[in-house]
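queue> pop job 88
queue> type: inverse folding (structure -> sequence)
queue> payload:
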């Protein structure tokens, strides 16, 4: 059964393969209908006409589903731990009636459409957040069930991504420790004020500040989907050291480390 599933996954992995599979299946359906018609009419000359009529009705009934299966969006999720996926803009906020600016690092995912149709209503859902324990295992810390926000838009659902196009989605941001104290929703009294914290960019900041995490190693489960694309699961592995560096390369090396994993990567890394 596993081999059959792997074969099916391989056959449906590209537009060309799906087209070939569809042609073969339709041919098989037609031959089956023709054989049934030939048997039912005792070899009458009308058997092929009957088979053709039934086959045409079958194709008309499932044509849209067949086309959608062959030509469809294919969302690719990537993360590279480097400057291309990071940014250091100035975060603007209002304090005491004045607009202030503080340095802030943003880390992002890239979502690209490698398919042949536009992906509509694209969303990245954050669910389980697990924290690494002393024995190396991961325990559930909290569950978000909220979407991440799209870069520069601030929306939870992206209207669409056309074939060959891409968009960034914000994972979270890190503010310089001494600056976050005055920003609403960016600091928790229980955290060390001299260390960095990671603020996940979920669609709404909970009043109990569960979008903030202190230094440690975490795994955040993400589900990337569109209106006609089933969710695909990915896992972000995030290690936050608590240190702040003004130079981005230093921050990427010694301040925070992030990698994108698949569920199979998680299973392979589970200790025996």
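queue> result:
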């Amino acid at each position: 059964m596993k081999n059959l599933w792997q074969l099916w996954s391989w056959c449906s992995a590209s537009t060309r393969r799906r087209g070939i599979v569809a042609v073969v299946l339709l041919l098989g359906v037609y031959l089956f209908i023709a054989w049934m018609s030939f048997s039912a009419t005792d070899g009458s000359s009308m058997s092929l006409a009957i088979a053709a009529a039934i086959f045409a009705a079958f194709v008309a009934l499932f044509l849209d589903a067949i086309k959608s299966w062959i030509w469809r969006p294919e969302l690719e999720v990537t993360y590279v731990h480097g400057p291309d996926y990071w940014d250091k803009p100035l975060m603007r906020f209002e304090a005491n009636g004045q607009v202030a600016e503080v340095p802030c690092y943003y880390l992002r995912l890239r979502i690209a459409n490698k398919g042949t149709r536009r992906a509509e209503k694209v969303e990245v859902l954050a669910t389980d957040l697990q924290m690494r324990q002393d024995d190396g295992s991961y325990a559930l810390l909290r569950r978000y069930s909220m979407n991440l926000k799209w870069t520069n838009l601030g929306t939870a659902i992206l209207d669409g991504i056309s074939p060959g196009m891409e968009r960034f989605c914000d994972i979270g941001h890190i503010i310089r420790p001494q600056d976050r104290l005055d920003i609403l929703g960016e600091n928790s009294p229980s955290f060390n004020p001299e260390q960095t914290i990671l603020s996940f960019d979920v669609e709404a900041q909970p009043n109990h500040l569960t979008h903030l995490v202190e230094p440690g190693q975490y795994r955040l489960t993400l589900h990337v989907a569109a209106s006609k694309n089933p969710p695909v699961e990915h896992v972000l592995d995030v290690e936050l050291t608590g240190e702040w560096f003004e130079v981005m390369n230093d921050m990427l090396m010694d301040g925070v480390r992030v990698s994108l994993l698949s569920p199979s990567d998680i299973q392979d890394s589970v200790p025996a």
